[in-house]
Amino acid sequence: MVNNNTIFSLDTVGYQYPDGVAALTEISLEIKAGDCVAFIGANGCGKSTLLKLLNALIFPTEGTISAFGRTLTPDALANPEFATMFRRSVGLVFQDPDVQLFCSTVEEEVSFGLLQLGFPEDEAAARVEKTIDELRIAHIRHRPPYRLSGGEKRKVALASVLCLEPEVLLLDEPTVGLDARSQGELIDLVWKLRGEGKTIVTATHDLSIIRELAGFVYVIGENHRLMFKGTPQEVLGNQNLLQEANLLHVHSHQHDGEIHKHFHIHQPPHPETGGREHHET
Fold first, then answer.
1. Which residues neighbour 37 within 8 Å (Cβ) at sequence distance 6 or greater?
2. Which of 168, 148, 164 is nearest to 156 (CA)?
C-alpha cells in the first residue's frame, strides 16, 4: 500500500519498444521522499528507459507506475493541474544533453522551463541568476549551446532542471563527459540537495560514484529484470553479482609462470582521451 511519503510506486512494470524488443520486465519497487537511489547495470539493460518512465515521457506497456498517489497514464498527464504539479516536481537530466538543449543561448535555455510552466518573469529571472551562479556557468550564459564543450552542455542541461527546484531529480549517467573537477562539483551539489531533503534517482554504470550518489542501489540485469537491491557496500562487495550484471570483468595474465586474475570495474569513457580507466579489485 502506498503511504503519504511515497513518491513512486512501480508494480510489475514492463516496457516494450514498438518492434517488440523488451527494455524492462516485471520491475516492482517504491521510492520514498528523500530517498537517494541508484539504478546500475550494463549499457542496454533499461536504466534510461526506467528514468523516462518515472518522468512520464513514456508509459508502461505492462504493470503500473504511481507518482504522488496517482497512476501515471496519458490521461493523467492530460489533466493541466496534475501535469503542472508533476512537471514542476520531477526533473530529468538526460544522458545526452544535445537532446535537451535547443534555445539560442544558455540563459534562454535555463529560463525556458520556468516560463513554460508559468512562473512569473521576475521569479524566473531570480531563479536563473541563482542557478547560473551555483553551477558556475555565468561566463557562458550568452553563448549558444552548440559552442559549448560536452561538460559545459551537461552543466547547462542540469541548470535547466535545477532552476525549477524539483522535489525529485532524475540523473541519467550524470558523470559521463565531466572532468575530475566537474565530477566533484556534481557530487557536492547532490550532497547539498540530499541535505535539503530532495529525492534523487541516478542511473549509471559508473560504479566509482555510487557510494557518493546513493544510499540504496538497484541492480538491473541484461535480461532487463531487477537482480539485486542493497546498499552500495553490499553491491560493490559482491563480485559475482557485478560479473553477472556485466559491470565487472576478469582479466588474466601470466607472471613468473603463474596465471593471475584481476577484476576490473567498467568505467565510462575518460572525457579527454575517450579511453577507459580500469580499477582493479
1. 31, 200, 201, 202, 214, 215, 216, 217, 218
2. 148
Q: What is the pLDDT, as a whole number, of residue 151?
A: 86
The Cα–Cα gap between 109 and 159 comes to: 9
Q: How many helices (H) and strands (E) does the chain have?
A: 10, 13
Answer whether residue 181 is part of any domain: yes
Please give the tally of structural domains in the chain.
1
Closest by Cα among 213, 212, 197 to 165: 197
Asked whether residue 264 is assigned to any structural domain, the reply reads no
**Across 121-145, average pLDDT:** 94
Tell me the pLDDT tens digit for each residue of 178-224.
888 888 888 998 899 999 999 999 999 889 899 999 999 999 999 99
The whole-angstrom distance between residue 151's C-alpha and the CA centroid of its chain comes to 16
CATH of the domain at 80: 3.40.50.300
In tens, the pLDDT along 148-177 reads 988 899 999 999 999 999 999 999 999 887
Cα–Cα separations (whole angstroms), residue 187 to 37, 54, 274: 14, 22, 22
Does residue 271 lie within any of the structural domains?
Answer: no
Instruction: Please check the confidence at residue 3 and state whether its pLDDT lies above 90.
Output: no
Residue 109, amino acid: E
Count CA atoms closer than 13 A to 21's CA, side-chain side: 8
pLDDT band at 274 (very low <50, low <70, confident <90, very high): very low
Close Cβ partners of 252 (under 8 Å, ≥ 6 residues apart): 259, 260, 261, 262
In a domain, residue 127? The reply is yes
For residue 136, give Cα distances in angstroms to 76, 91, 141, 156, 223.
37, 20, 10, 10, 40
Contact status, residue 70 vs residue 64, Cβ threshold 8 Å? no
Range of the domain at 149: 6-249
> Measured between alpha carbons, how far is 193 from 118 in angstroms, rounded to an integer?
24
